Amino acid sequence: MTSTADADLVARAKEGDRSAFDQLVGPLVNQGFRLAYGMLHDREAAEDAVQEAAVRSWRKLSNLRPGTEMRPWFLAIVANQCRTTMRGRWWSVLRIEPRTGSSAAGFEDRIVRGADLRAALRKLAPDHREVLVLHYYLDLPLDEIAAIAGVPIGTVKSRINRGIAAMRPFFEPVEAFS
Amino acid sequence: MDELIRESIHDALDAEPTPAGLRARVIGSVPMHDRTERRSQRAPFQPAGQFAAGFVAALLAVAVIAGLLYSRHAITLPNRAGGAHPASPARLISPEGIAIAPDGTVFVSDYDGNRVFRLLPGGHLVSVAGGGVGADGPANKTNLWGPSALAIDGQGNLYVATSPGGAVRRIDRQGLISTVITLYGPQGLAFDRAGVLYIGTYYGLLRRIDARGVATDLDLSRLPSPAVQLGNMAFDSAGNLYVTDRAPTTGNSPSPGGGCRVIRVNLTQNQTPIEATVVAGTGVCGYSGDGGPAKSAQLNDPNGIVFDADGNLYLADAANHRIRRIDKNGIITTVAGTGVPGYGGDGGPATKAQLTYPLGLGITVGGLIYIADPNADPTTTPARVRVLRLSDGTITSVVGG
Fold first, then answer.
1. CA of B32, closest CA in chain A: separation in Å?
2. Where are the alpha helices (DSSP H) in B79-231?
3. Which residue of A has its CA nearest to B102?
4. How many Å apart are CA B61 and CA B50, to the nearest integer?
5. Cα dihedral angle (B288, B293, B296, B297), rounded to 10 degrees?
6. Average pLDDT in the A151-163 region?
7. B32: nearest CB among A16, A33, A175
8. What DSSP designation does B330 have?
9. How do residues B122-166 score in pLDDT, each as one tens digit?
């Protein structure tokens, strides 16, 4: 169950009350980053996307009806921002340097496998990548994913199936939605 | 098996944990004051019949145009704390090269600042290269010495000519910089449709580098007098290369008949020496000729060069402090600058505005010409990037105004 937009908080946030805005959006920043990183595979770009999504969400508060589920509302804005980033300028994701991960013995296989899987995720169509991240990484229910992606639940299932199929070598044997 | 997939994806993506303090940074970065500030600054609306309605409509139109002018972005983010790319208050010292990506993103090189910036809405600058001490590797940690001309290839890599550094360098899509070629004094860069890179140098050398990396120097000996100092370059729609022959002197050109002109190089015929003709400038530096044939006009240290969608050529006539246009019939006119160095005239007709030694030009699909307008005296006046709007001939500053 996610939190809903409280009318009083929304009104205060609209007037510039940062603590009210924090209560509305703050709890979702972590998930927003995980979604953005899952879609963009770039730490800097993911931070930028969440930051920009926060700004956009504040500006969209006027459209937010009391009782609206906050999580799909905010994550949809994050996802949109990620799509814009993917379509857009490579220089917005310029990296200072590759982040160095742990290379401790015993974890190398897992790291290599993780790197391969991230590479495979990057090759997926953005729509497929988005639903995989939302479903398997953020563990969101299908109806919420549908709300975030703006498509029917059937389409979400279909995209998950296709995404999994494209990454089959990593998930043998594969169990897809029927 | 769902769990296996879930676990695998978690393994892959958990390698990048959520940055510490992200929530506070993100929430803290939202400019929550701007809505209320704008409201408080807004003049009370007092309808007064049709005139007021027309006035409001005009304001809306201006707002829409301004929105287009300052790109699609409606938001300027504050700098991310600890972010990789420190944004403003970066300040340009001597902007020289401009490149505009297909999506409208503008890059500016700062010759004396030794950096290349990306321009954000609101005049903010984000450093994308330079400012470091390294050589090849992360562009933001590299040392750039005198970046001047910029160009973007078909794959979205940004190329930077560093004239005093004696190299052309490439910033790839991952933000890594590498050296494409070392040569003396590169000042002009352009790619043809096939992805061949052309480089013009301070010493009058025109070199091409094909997709395999093979370099060939083009023989320009068909010119009536040797090229003196090649500057920026651009292709017309027919595939001819136009390159400026600068000669930055205020008097006569150092080589009789050379410099202060625009050269067209016909690359469609693979000849040696290659077909090269003068399309503007007499070879004697000066200012004259507006309203007449460009070949009979005088230029003074021309550098930036772009073509609009209709095939008109725009030229940064630097030492004349003007932007000049050569139309398809070869007639030259001044479209910006009074000839008196300075910074006045923003918001009005560009022909009544002052520029100070404009060097680099870039043009958007929508007909906005970005002008690198360096600063003659950085201690008193900030350098600028200005925009000439071809649709109505007005000029404004987007950086340093």
1. 5
2. none
3. A89
4. 16
5. 30
6. 89
7. A16
8. S
9. 667 888 999 877 788 888 888 888 999 999 998 889 999 998 778
- Residues of chain B with Cβ-Cβ distance to A134 below 8 Å are none
The helix, strand and coil proportions of chain B, stated in percent and rounded to the nearest 5, come to 15, 35, 50
ipTM over 0.85: no
Structure tokens at B130: 């330079």
In angstroms, rounded to a whole number, what is the distance separating the alpha carbons of residues A133 and B335?
53
Task: Scan residues 76-115 of B and list those with Cβ closer than 8 Å to A.
Answer: 77, 80, 83-85, 101, 103, 105, 107
Cβ neighbours of residue B226 closer than 8 Å, sequence gap 6 or more: B204, B220, B255, B258
CB contact under 8 A, B174 and A114: no
Closest CA to B391 of B370, B366, B360, B355: B366
Taking an 8 Å cut-off on Cβ atoms, the answer to whether B12 and A90 are in contact is: no
Q: How would you label B234-244 residue by residue, b for 16+ Cβ within 10 Å and e otherwise?
A: bbeeeebbbbb
Q: Which helix (H) or strand (E) holds B241?
A: strand B241-245
The distance between the two most distant Cα atoms of chain A, rounded to a whole number of Å, is 53
Cross-strand partners of B384? B373
For chain A positions 45-104, those within 8 Å of chain B (CB to CB) are 46-48, 50-52, 54-56, 58-59, 88-91, 93-97, 99, 101
Q: Is B29 close to A133, i.e. CB distance below 8 A?
A: no
CA–CA gap between residue B209 and residue B211 (Å, rounded): 7
**How would you classify the pairing of strands B147-152 and B158-162?**
antiparallel
Is pLDDT of B277 > 90?
yes
Indicate yes or no: pTM above 0.90.
no
Phi–psi pair at B3, nearest 5 degrees: -70, -35
Nearest to B160 by CA among B130, B184, B131: B130
- Mapped onto helix, strand or coil, the DSSP state of residue B176 is strand
| Separation in Å, CA of B135 to nearest CA in chain A | 14
Q: Please name the member of A34, A48, A58 whose beta carbon is closest to the beta carbon of B32.
A: A58
